[in-house]
Amino acid sequence: MGVLDWILVIIRWGHALAAVSWVGGGVFYLMVLRPAIRRSRGLPPETGAAIRDEFRGLVTTAIAVLLLTGVILSVARLTGDAATTPYVAVLAVKIGLALYMFYVARFVGRGGYAGRQDGGGGRLRRVARRFTSPTALLVIGVVVIGLSDVLDALIEDALVG
Question: Are 147 and 90 in contact (CB under 8 A)?
Fold first, then answer.
C-alpha cells in the first residue's frame, strides 16, 4: 500500500465516523433520551435547548465531513477500474438519500414540517412531517450505512471477477 492508499483509508475512516456519529446520536435520542425525558415529564427549557444545540453542532460537523470525504471517496472509486454500472446506481441512490438527509437536517429540522406540532394542514403536510421526522432520518441513515456495505461488496466482486 502506498501513501495515497493510506490517505484514502483515513478518509474512509473519517467518513464512517461522521456517519456513525450522526446515526448513533439519532439512535440514542430516539431510544434513550426521548423516553427518559417523557418519563421524567420533561426537561427545563435551557437543558433542552443545550441538548438541541450540541446535537445540531454534531450534525453540522458530520455533514461537512461527509460531504468532503464523500466527494473524495466517490472520485477515487469512480476513476478506478472496479466501478461497475450497479456500483454507480447504488452510489447514486446513496448520494440522493444522503443529500435528502442533509437538506432536512439543515433547512427543515428547525421550524419546518418536523418542527410543527399543531397538527394543522392537510394530508400532504402530514406526509411531509413523517418524511422529515427524526425517526425517518434515522431510518434513512441506517439505509445509507447499509448501502455502504452494498458498495463494498460490489467493489470486492468487481475486483475478484
Answer: yes
> Are the C-beta atoms of 132 and 92 separated by less than 8 Å?
no
Check if the beta carbon of residue 133 is closer than 8 Å to that of residue 8: no
User: Contacts by 133-137 with C-beta closer than 8 Å and gap 24+?
Assistant: 134/26, 134/29, 134/30, 135/30, 137/26, 137/101, 137/104, 137/105
The SS3 of residue 79 is: coil
- Greatest Cα pair distance, the chain, in angstroms, is 59
Is 21 exposed, middle or buried, given 0-12, 13-18 or 19+ CB atoms closer than 10 A? middle
Encode pLDDT of 69-79 as tens digits: 999 999 999 99
Q: How far apart are the first and last CA of the chain?
A: 21
pLDDT digits (tens, 9 = 90+) for 36-92: 888 888 888 888 889 888 999 999 999 999 999 999 999 999 998 889 999 999 999
